[in-house]
Amino acid sequence: xxxxxxxxxxxxxxxxxxxxxxxxxxxxxxxxxxxxxxxxxxxxxxxxxxxxxxxxxxxxxxxxxxxxxxxxxxxxxxxxxxxxxxxxxxxxxxxxxxxxxxxxxxxxxxxxxxxxxxxxxxxxxxxxxxxxxxxxxxxxxxxxxxxxxxxxxxxxxxxxxxxxxxxxxxxxxxxxxxxxxxxxxxxxxxxxxxxxxxxxxxxxxxxxxxxxxxxxxxxxxxxxxxxxxxxxxxxxxxxxxxxxxxxxxxxxxxxxxxxxxxxxxxxxxxxxxxxxxxxxxxxxxxxxxxxxxxxxxxxxxxxxxxxxxxxxxxxxxxxxxxxxxxxxxxxxxxxxxxxxxxxxxxxxxxxxxxxxxxxxxxxxxxxxxxxxxxxxxxxxxxxxxxxxxxxxxxxxxxxxxxxx
Length: 404
Ligand code: HEM
Description:
binds protoporphyrin IX containing FE; disordered C terminus; 11 strands; CATH 1.10.630.10; alpha+beta
């Protein structure tokens, strides 16, 4: 592996030939859970075709209408938060983002699929805990339902059963259905290749798991980090407040960017070279994995003076860092498919939460990084305490109006 953290090289890799720079071959960790048809594992034409299809429900007007749903789901959760007791935000942001992605993927209220709703987070957590077995296939030993790999296999099998049943039900419904549905499953069911062949059930299952998996864990962690950061910076909360009074979202967007800079959820992204490649005068042989260090680059003092300080102002005005120095969502033809959704969720959830409750961090010292699978999460899950619940009639320093 060659590990790099330089905007010039990042640009070269992101703009390079996707036939030479495979992301799928660098992502085999995803295979046991996502399946071999997962978008993460595809490359070249097959990847582009599937990517185009999956992108449709995730941008433009289709995406924007989710803002109301995100605000409603968030509000329902926040109203239940206890006062005066420390609790972790991450499981809650995870419940909200899972709810949202299930609606986008299946086009229905997750309460209609309660078992799937209950089991999915387990699959992702077990998958992450099983990372060593994913890297070293010889560790994959099914020693019964209590062994880690055995537990993973049984959970995955039950989830697959539920997904295949849903696929079958929807195939049957499709012919009879009136009007156009634009959830991910409907779009995939309606898709066909040049010869008129649709996707197989296994291909459908793999894309569903991919979207469900990629579509909630990451954003949940980013949101937990956002609160971990802003609650330790009262000036930032104040800035959000002032902006909300005046109307606008420039500062909120800068806060989101600074959160993803200083606390990126993915530490790096990787590409597998199918041919030799010259990078900055070095000849890198075929079959090398080139990893772009997101965390490392985001903390380079040359790119971000005083890199460990949380300073949203970096992203305001004309001197904002360029495209290839800020890469929490990767880039090029592999850029995160959910960047629009993730940003929208943060734009809606941060002000919604601050409008409803006065929060403080449970302890003054910053939370450390913990590694969960391949993602970076706050070590105490973004632990907070609710000082009090707020009503709209009761303005408070922690109140920030929705700007999305
Ligand atoms: C803050 C939240 C998120 C972060 C930090 C994040 C980060 C990333 C990163 C670093 C990549 C790899 C990009 C590359 O290799 O260049 C990626 C890919 C991907 N993400 Fe996200 N992601 C987030 C949210 C989401 C959401 C909400 C969805 C789904 C709706 C999603 C779906 C995907 C998919 C499908 C890919 C694979 C794209 C491809 O290979 O073409 N992500 N994401």
